Every structure is written in structure tokens, then in C-alpha cells.
Amino acid sequence: MPLGLGTRKKGKSKETSKLVDSEVTAPPSAAEAPAPAASASRLQFHTQLAHGSPTGRVEGFGSARELYAKIAEVFGISPTEIMFCTLNTHKVDMDKLLGAQIGLEDFIFAHIKGQRKEVEVLKSDDLLGLTVTDNGAGCPFIKRIKEGSLMDQTKMICVGDHIESINGRDVSDLRHYEVAKMLKDLEKGRVFKLKLIEPMKSFEKVAARSKGGTLTEAKISRGRETLRLRNKGPATVEEMLSEVEEKAVKKVDELLETYMGIRDIELAATMVEAGRDKKNPDEFAVALDETLGDFAFPDEFVFDVWGAIGDAKQGRLE
Predict the structure, then answer these.
(1) What's the number of CA atoms in the CB half-sphere (13 Å) around residue 281?
(2) β-bridge pairing 162-166 and 130-133
(3) Neighbour count for residue 202 (Cβ, 10 Å)
(4) pTM
């Protein structure tokens, strides 16, 4: 029976999904509805610059972009200097990246731009071995380097490096999926040039040449409330994903790398949440277009994601 995915909308406004967080929330009861937004606005979080600084406090933010602005104000820097944030560690640890959820007791470390570098690479293989993500407000950076890959052999390229330009084209404000596509489309057998910016280093030596966390090592915090950041509307205090949903998120994250060359645990979580109360793939496809329309996911990918959600619900995922 035809599923009618050909009627999906592909051309959503960029305001629809500027941030890879969810626009869908579990419906609260009438008595609970006003409380989260009010309490969220009063929450305070401790923060430091990852390379070393006094401790500051931030509050009153609802999106990643607003959070970076608050952190920048505390430390007297430009928000564009912030590459990404990690939770509860100053190290460049891709398993601890701040996404769209922050535990209410989490400590935020902001990694700012450090040394610039240029590297030329001969694309001798179709697959570069890079996984790209971004900080939710642009600033694409390298999340993972596959061991033994072409990029693994290029020792100047490290996990955490911000990709500033590709062959002279400024990509510093592009989303991760756009940068991943540009890298994938580079002609095999040709040399290409990357301009990169590494995170500012502290006096303590950090293992910058890390390959990045594997998915099996990555953990989604559980058993506590979190502050959910949103691009539109106030941040809300919510419960973490269920164990079943966590398994679905991990599988969807794998599918993102297979189809798009990116890893994005928060984007995967948003997709799983979009399918939380959907009864069939048609409803799911419509929900994805409403929340993440700019991605224009192919139908085959949507089917596979819907299948992963179903497998998780049926206990077929490890």
C-alpha cells in the first residue's frame, strides 16, 4: 500500500530548524504546564572557559545561541569565539558535548578558538574518515576521526578542530550536514585545502589527537531532569529519554552517519521524539518536515529511522 511520502514538504523556512533541538514536547498536564518555563528562566549554571578562567554563572537562556551570548558576556569575549561546550570536563571530550539538554547540576566548560592552521590533503579515497558536527549555532567542527582513514594519516587534523574554510570557501557559519556534503563531493585524486581552528589549549596537556568517542562509549544522561534548550520559545525542564528511546537514538545516530556523514546525538534524539506518538511512517514524515524541514531527508532514510524506532519499541535493539 502506498505510503504517500511524495506529498512531504521539502522547502521549510530556515527558522523551522535552525537548531538541532526538538520543537516537540511531551504534552504536560494543565497543572504542570506553566511551571517548567517559569522555573527554567530562574535556573543558574556555573561555567568556565575550558583553557582556564574564573568561574562565572549564566541564566535566562533558551537556546544554544543565547547560552553562548551569556557565556561571552560573563567573560568579556565575542560569542563567535565559542566553538563548543562540554559538560563537567574541560577536556575536548566528544562524549561530553553540550547539545540541546543540560542536566540541572551540570557544569559548563566553553572551548574558544585558539590557533589557526592550514592543511592540504590529497583525496586518495572516496571516504575521508571524518565525522562532522556543529555547536547548534553554526561553527562546524570535527567530532570523530576514523582510525586508519585518510584523515587519520593527516596528523595536523584533530578532533575538536573547527572547519573554517574548504578550498577558500568560508563554511564557518554552515550547518554540519552542509559541510559534510561539501567534503563528500570533493573530487577524488585532487588536492584540497582546509583552514582549521583548534580549541585554545590550557597549560594542562590534553590528548587533542583523540579519535573521538565511539557510539558505544557515548552516554545519554538518565535519571534526572534536564533543561531543554529551544530555538523558538522558552527553555523547559523535562525528564530525560526513556531507556527504549535511548536505544532508538543510538541507532538513528548511526543512520545519520551512514546517510549524511554526520554524528549528532541531539538531532537523533529530536527525530526519535518526533516519532514518539506517531502511528505510521506518513505521520512521522510529516512531523520531521515540521520540525526539521531544512534537512529534506530522503524517503529511504525516513523509513529506516521509523524502522529503528519500531525495533527499539519491540526490544529488537541491543
Answers:
(1) 19
(2) unpaired
(3) 14
(4) 0.66
